[in-house]
# Entry
Amino acid sequence: MSQEEMGRRALLVGAGCAALAMLGACGSRGEESPPGPKPGDVLAPTSGVPVGGGLLTQTGVLVLQLHEGQFTAYSAVCPHQSYLVRPPDSDGIMTCTGHQSKFRASDGVRVDGPALGNLVPVAVKVSGADVVRA
Ligand code: FES
# Structure
């Protein structure tokens, strides 16, 4: 296997772990990750998510309301070294607390910094007055 193939494979494994960490299925350094939200779990009250911004939940999910009544979410776990990413600023950019990688709030795509991947989307829906994991 070439060096490039090994790097690509490591990247895919890392991205997979970030996604699986949301489900509590992937550990780091031999430790078990805290369980992520399961379908139906309440992430935040809709009233707690600012329009044009977002909220970082205790389960490591960034819940966003970029347009009134439209909720989206990403894992806040940075694909670089797993620090948490902050909710979007007024320019719609979410910045990692670790090494300042930057991601677009509109689609989670990395726009700057050492992270090589994008943020992992989390499916959400509104149920009553809450945003829940779909
Ligand atoms: S952990 Fe996010 S940029 Fe390093």
